[in-house]
Fold these 2 entries.
Entry 1:
Amino acid sequence: VTPGLVSLVGAGPGDPDLLTRLALRRLRRADIVFHDGLVPEPILAVARRASRQSVAKRAGRAETSQQAISDALIDASRLGVRVVRLKVGDPYVLGRGGEEAHALEAAGIPFEIVPGISAALAAPALAGIPLTYRGVASGFVVLSGHDPHAYVPILDGLRPLSATLVVLMGLATRASLTADLLTRGWPDTTPAAVVVDASRPDEFVWAGTLAGLPGFSTGTSNALPGVIVIGPVVALRTKEHSHVRVRQSALVGSRPVGVR
Amino acid sequence: VTPGLVSLVGAGPGDPDLLTRLALRRLRRADIVFHDGLVPEPILAVARRASRQSVAKRAGRAETSQQAISDALIDASRLGVRVVRLKVGDPYVLGRGGEEAHALEAAGIPFEIVPGISAALAAPALAGIPLTYRGVASGFVVLSGHDPHAYVPILDGLRPLSATLVVLMGLATRASLTADLLTRGWPDTTPAAVVVDASRPDEFVWAGTLAGLPGFSTGTSNALPGVIVIGPVVALRTKEHSHVRVRQSALVGSRPVGVR
């Protein structure tokens, strides 16, 4: 049997409308989809003819399970079927897609990379926060907040306010992240925001300062993945201009504004 | 007349297949599209019923022309038509989308943000380079290479090799960027890559080290926008796994591999 193509596909931040045309096509034709636990049902439903396999990682067993995921992709490909490995956001941003690519390459399996919209960029945008702004921020840093040992070396030298900080998977560690920034000279008045469930119907934005970051509450969704944005650009935020809000406000309904 | 909705739309890196479903819908229904000079024709062609207006900036006149672009968006909206402002990549990454949003907000124009795939993330991915990798890089920095005065403060403190560097609009300044990194302690053996025309048929990848970065040549396309990636993750690159190559290799043709 000729091995089937494995597509490492980015699912984007959650709204099926933010899937790319290529991702839609790969999902529709997939025979089997291996997906993260965080991919929402409306996106999985695009893969209508595929069998689905959740490969959500269990805490503390990530090491074992990463190998198991790679093995499952290889085994499926060798059956000669079309395989999609579906990850939230972009497969190559903090998602261990690189490790899966290496395993596939080593096994001689044909694969391709289908980039997706990373929440690192989309969540701030949908909250009305430009990551860069002329005269305010000319670059940004994307970090995982999951493991302080990993992000501290990056923060160590970074000049306070020199770049916008975007922290994924940092809601749980936001108190220590804040302390780490304050001790490195970031003012406690630095604007900061949290975007939870970007692009989903319950999209939620908190905006304040670094001083308030440890204490904010999302209400019900405290355990959900959120994106933290820190830097002066947060103060430049425009409000309620996410396409999700526009859709809800019926600006683009059956009789949309702007069509004569 | 009720003002028309203005959609700030990210066109992605160039391949129409990397447009999102939402971007496709907005383009198809647009009455007028204001686009950058870099948006390729196959993407513009999606906006089949729209009139098109190029708002490419001329060197040295950016200041004036940014105001003119915002004014044009406002004027069009006030005619009651559907307006798309189309930018390569993501509208809020180094694209001055934030300034346009502010102008629209100040004028009371309804607008929305439609995130797109940024070349900052997609170009490395399509070149087989994961921006993060367990134990190698747990974060990345995105900079514009256009203006050294803007990026130098970010590089100043950044600990060498602590994060992957992604530089947009840096091909012209790559010699001075390399010198700036070497004087800040980055080893000249640091892996580096340049990705030109990511996701387009003539996608081109150069991979080497920081020492070789100033001297590499893309051949014909030296003036084109390219993405520079610097850091140990570049050495982890898998080869020829861009979906563009996969498509060209007929792995996914009329009789694709992997379909029984």
Entry 2:
Amino acid sequence: MKVAFQGERGAYSEEAIIAYLGESVDPVPRPYLKDVFDTVEAGGADSGLVPVENSIEGSIVRTYDLLNERTLKAGGESVHRIAHCLITNDGVELKDIKKVYSHPQALGQSRKFLDEHNMDAIPSYDTAGSVKMIKNLGSKDSAAIASGRAAQVYDMKILRRGIETHSENYTRFLLVKPEDHDATGNDKTSIAFIVDHKPGSLYQALHAFAESKINLTKIESRPMVGTPWEYIFFIDFIGHRTDTNIIEAIEGLSKNTRSVKILGSYPQAA
Amino acid sequence: MKVAFQGERGAYSEEAIIAYLGESVDPVPRPYLKDVFDTVEAGGADSGLVPVENSIEGSIVRTYDLLNERTLKAGGESVHRIAHCLITNDGVELKDIKKVYSHPQALGQSRKFLDEHNMDAIPSYDTAGSVKMIKNLGSKDSAAIASGRAAQVYDMKILRRGIETHSENYTRFLLVKPEDHDATGNDKTSIAFIVDHKPGSLYQALHAFAESKINLTKIESRPMVGTPWEYIFFIDFIGHRTDTNIIEAIEGLSKNTRSVKILGSYPQAA
């Protein structure tokens, strides 16, 4: 099974694919999120695993936008713990390290460790790409911060695992594919809807959900690009789109909004 | 007046400071968002200009988190159009350019232009940092994508202005400082509040706002790190925290939520 992801070989998304779907999966790296959707739509992969939110950095709204624009559905969910690893060439010890390369977010999240060990943080465009770079340079006085998977992919050494300041660092991913998932009894659904930008419009839109006692797990709003008086909302909630109370709530929502699109139903992550 | 921002000299945030507050301001570059707050709190700058959302990439929730954790207030708002410039050394023409360096978001947003001109996109950690790099290399076959301000700061040439695929690319900034802004009659307010993760809790929380006919302009939710059954919401709305209907709504909200924090009131951006 081929599963596309955004990033270089060894990215956290690739690590999440293996943790979610097992070692037998064939991960397909693609440079941009949009390419992940293109590749799955063109049949170059069976599905794609795309990030939707991180517990520290927030939502990746590009993913919701793409789900809204494209025909692919959200058919699975995975929550992956982000454990930053300090990765070096063989023979390098902690005391040898002067410079540490990684994406600015990973450097920022590991700042306490870097400060305590007097290491200089050097921003780079990518976590896994930093591992590849110090490998190619054969550097003996530098390290990279990336996933454990990156060390495996590039055959490098993990000197420390879990150097992030806050261990509560999770990224939530959705599996995108041509069809969503059948009901399992423990499901979530993602939808998008558009409301007029006027007092009370969101409150009215949510009325049907409160009536049907549906538990919202996420709500995100943004202005519609190009139409300043409309807002698009992305909402996740517990339940499957074929459940009676969900069908009723979406009918109610449709009366109070300009448009509703079901992005998919999927088994809830553990 | 010193105004801190996150990024290198020539970053879009610096360009936004000049557009918002004028050429006489002294911009103070800081590596991380957290440093911007630290610098202002320590008196190293009078205020900081920090991004909260981009029309394409979405919210920068780190900023809302910092406003919630720290004592600084949101006391101003600015919406800045992001126009990506193709920047080169002197004497370089469009036909000479083989490689283009920039942050992956800027490369992604300029992809149509790069594809049409057969230019290779090379990801880098920073937009303005890419300009500095090709200047230092004296490169004659490469360009960087960054703000017009970056070309000015590093004394480089703007070969094309506005190469982004979608021109509706805006970033909204908040001015953070020790006190927020007095009422002007055309204000916005940002607040944070925490609700239990149960059906209808957001709907109940929003009741007071719908009653008082307050126009919400943004809503953003995320799980509380470490307490999985609570959610924090960040809401922006029209009005000043000293307006009678706002005072009433926040009183009503306080009855239905675990905690409410006013992040600041400020004149609405044009």
